[in-house]
Amino acid sequence: MLRTHTCGELRIGDVNKEITLTGWVQRQRDKGSLLWIDLRDRYGVTQLFLEEGKSEASLIQLARTMGREYVIKITGIVAERLSKNDKMPTGDIEVKLTSLEILNTSKTPPFTIEDQTDGGEDLRMKYRYLDLRRTTVREGLQLRHKMAQQTRLYLDSLDFIEVETPVLIKSTPEGARDFVVPSRMNPGEFYALPQSPQTFKQLLMVSGFDRYYQIVKCFRDEDLRADRQPEFTQIDCEMAFITQEDILKTFEGLIRHLFKSVKGIDMPSVPHMTYDDAMKYYGSDKPDTRFEMKFVELNDVAKGKGFVVFDDAELVVGICAKGCASYTRKQLDELTEFVKKPQIGAKGMIYLRCEANGTYKSSVDKFYDEIELSRWAQKFNADAGDLILVLSGEKEKTRKALGELRLHLANQLGLRDKNKFAPLWVVDFPLLEYLPAGQAGNEEMGLPAGQAGRWHAMHHPFTSPKPEDMGLLDSDPGKVRANAYDMVLNGTEIGGGSIRIHDRATQQLMFSKLGFSPEEAKKQFGFLMEAFEYGAPPHGGIAFGFDRLCSLFGGADSIRDFIAFPKNNAGRDTMIDTPSTISQEQLKELSIDVKIK
Amino acid sequence: MLRTHTCGELRIGDVNKEITLTGWVQRQRDKGSLLWIDLRDRYGVTQLFLEEGKSEASLIQLARTMGREYVIKITGIVAERLSKNDKMPTGDIEVKLTSLEILNTSKTPPFTIEDQTDGGEDLRMKYRYLDLRRTTVREGLQLRHKMAQQTRLYLDSLDFIEVETPVLIKSTPEGARDFVVPSRMNPGEFYALPQSPQTFKQLLMVSGFDRYYQIVKCFRDEDLRADRQPEFTQIDCEMAFITQEDILKTFEGLIRHLFKSVKGIDMPSVPHMTYDDAMKYYGSDKPDTRFEMKFVELNDVAKGKGFVVFDDAELVVGICAKGCASYTRKQLDELTEFVKKPQIGAKGMIYLRCEANGTYKSSVDKFYDEIELSRWAQKFNADAGDLILVLSGEKEKTRKALGELRLHLANQLGLRDKNKFAPLWVVDFPLLEYLPAGQAGNEEMGLPAGQAGRWHAMHHPFTSPKPEDMGLLDSDPGKVRANAYDMVLNGTEIGGGSIRIHDRATQQLMFSKLGFSPEEAKKQFGFLMEAFEYGAPPHGGIAFGFDRLCSLFGGADSIRDFIAFPKNNAGRDTMIDTPSTISQEQLKELSIDVKIK
């Protein structure tokens, strides 16, 4: 190594040692008689100094030619600092230079290499290699590294085998759009990049691998919403000879291991909640349970009192904001505006103030007297000083809107602390959801466009229905529950999985319910259905979104700083400038042509 | 779990326990009064039995309906075996069934699930999920898992950070052909799949990551020779602030750690050999050093004696096969035929037998007397009973041919023992090699076709020349040595790397030597050259071919059984039937058209 120590390593015990360091010039302070240099590497920052009259003149001269981000190698003697800096691990010492070599110069970077940089997103992405020098970004990737290592350690300890599944696979229209890869050796044919290794991990179970995992890149050619990436990473797992309860226990164990080993947090066991309860009490299949504010239904106390909005509503439901009775008219109006936004979709909002003096003040005072309003308050166990907010209307829509209001309010109230973590299992998801014609993707499925909507697998077509609900599959498909589960953390889905179908007959039935013709099902998934005929064991699994999991552990909103080289919302990497055109020769070899409308 | 134990777990200490097992029916033996079943899972095989008169009749009846590969769940009592089987870890016990549940049936598999199967390659690939049930294949993948884990443990312990680099990158014509991916969101533009994360890992060094690794999928669209795969896995590493010696030490450490932790072998330190010596003594840049048989040059003793073939030859060089003087005429003729094959290319072969009685017998007796022949023998330190084989001609060709003969002979003599391991560093590779016009790939480089050949980077264009050889770059480019090294194991290159160029001027010079126009170099690698201007540290790295490394550790010739789902030589996965056609809608969305000549 060109160095004897790293820039994060020297302590008071090293005083008087001769050492050699390498790194980047973070900053220099030139006081004339004294010249300080902060030298940075991945491991930390060490202060160097030169003293007019005591240090060699040529050294001082050379040091004065250096700019920010020069790469240098220095030798010097470790000295105790006069004024120590207890914010830096190396803050007790500094190094008196005896030699200095410039290993490489640097132009002035286009933005400052500091935690709070002056560089905008676009500039930082174009010069991502400089952005990655910033401590916050580097620490994000170090956290990711640690998460990956600890995930592997945990799963290894439980006899999971890491198996690499192929990246060049087969395009299937179910699900999101595939990225495809033309095959030069097979003209006119294409590989697809995997959206997940789903079928391969199921085949590994048929093979008897028993416990599989992989931290694996997956690909989806979707229009990129904020914070989506065309390539993303999953912790992908599958187990055989298990029940749903085994999977939940195993992966609750994983998440608790990660909290302990990476964050030092002793996480209690992860609660379970049914999908129906999640919708009923939080209006979401991924409730943020860092705070309570559960929904309370008011149909029995709010209907039949002459307030026609409630009387006509399928559901009257509210939340209680503790201590918010003092909200001003303006604040309440802002909340009403919020719920009336088109993407929230409520028609209006009713409030009930539980005043400090024990009286009630509501926007619907003329329909409800004090006693009636007190019954509302009782339902919430509301105290004097609390504020109750009520929405009404069609059940699903109203729940969804109230769920959004709950989160909005919690953000305002600071209830969504990034350093607090509330994982949750949501279980018993519906097997199917109905997509109206416009969203059903009929064409991709090889079905006539414009026909009626269709039932779509909520999780994916390999998820098993609950045996006790099988009878409903024809009569009331929406009521059939699946052996499917999500892990939710702080209101974000971080993982999801299911117990799979493992016999051909059920799988074939499922494909037909989803609108696959027998030919299409065979063409796309024939190998899997055939595999089910050669001794497929009961099995199930889960996949975690690793990028998101890392960002949540890092307390960040965006996944981008937990990915070394992310793409922007147009799917571009502006640093290397891709995607880009390729040559005519390449196209010819691949038997394809560009054809832009 | 559906089971209390695995099929590899029960021992004599478990006798009389009631246990539940799950697994596959490996075989049944029905003796009428007694019925034995071998139950298999990933962990082993356990013998089950049923006894007419003692076991429930319905159980026996059900068991008799089962075929091979049925998936079952059984409960029973562990009993001591009368005749123990010390070849099985569970061979001391058997399980007396008390209940039996068929979890899934199985059709008769198309080949036997045994180590020595009756299935041919094609059939096994089509039913890979059944092939993977075979113990040998599963153990290959378990070995791979262990290799990956131990690689990570070792590199982690040295502060390497695992960073995922992108899969959707940019096509560059240097090197092999890229797989490309049309971008729907950027019509007419394409991503490429990485042939290696080379530029990204160098950028991570510019970013100060200091030590990077990744076990990563890479892609090459080459015509597949036997045992090549379009997607393959590398252990990819890079370090900053190092010398070549640091890299060699670090990764010698890795290979020794793998031998120790995976194979239980204490590997002594890995010897170094220059490229020149490898060519001179073994005729190969990847010598198999499990055995000696080094080349001995005979120009001084063989030339000038009137044998015109040697007199006209640039090089006369031979090997000594210990104890082979008794080779028959037929055996010698076979060796002569071997070296005369077009792919070997020698014109003929001379032999010298060191007879047991101390005399010499050669095919060129009439040109050399006993004393002259004894001088040959002395050069080889040959003993009575040894056989010397000599080739001659143009230096490089002759060395290559003799290198092939050496391996051929060693195979015959059983000197290439798969359980013996001889790693080796080959260092000081040439920087450049000259490719004649036909092989130079001028068109891909945007150069006029049919122009003269060109100098090509032997390793890759980012490899640094040895500073002391820089003066030869114009006068004698072929003589310039690179800071490049390969790790060779048993005659196979398992890894290679180099100290990189880290300044723009040298990198630009190198691109121009390789025939890039300044515009082309900028278009393809502008981001890297720009990065070199912002404080790039000295750095270097290495990549190991992980599939091959695993197959060598597994003592296998082919990499295929160390890859879960390999592709055949036409790049097809016959199990999932890919590549395949995609729909017109998909093509339209991607702004491409199929155009087959």
Proportion of strand residues of chain A: 15-25%
CATH class of the largest domain in chain A: Alpha Beta
Helix fraction of chain A by DSSP (H/I, runs of at least 4) = 25-40%
Strand order of the largest sheet of chain A: 6-9-10-22-21-20-17-11
Uncertain stretches of chain A: none
Structural class of chain A: alpha+beta
Q: How many individual β-strands of chain A?
A: 23
The CATH architecture of the largest domain in chain A can be given as: 2-Layer Sandwich
How would a crystallographer describe the biggest sheet of chain A? 8 strands, mixed
The overall pLDDT of chain A, averaged over residues, is 94
- Alpha plus pi helix count of chain A: 17
Integer tally of domains of chain A: 3
- How large is the radius of gyration of chain A? 30 Å
Dominant shape of chain A: globular
User: Biggest interface, and residues per chain?
Assistant: A-B, 126 and 126 residues
How is the CATH topology of the largest domain in chain A named? BirA Bifunctional Protein, domain 2
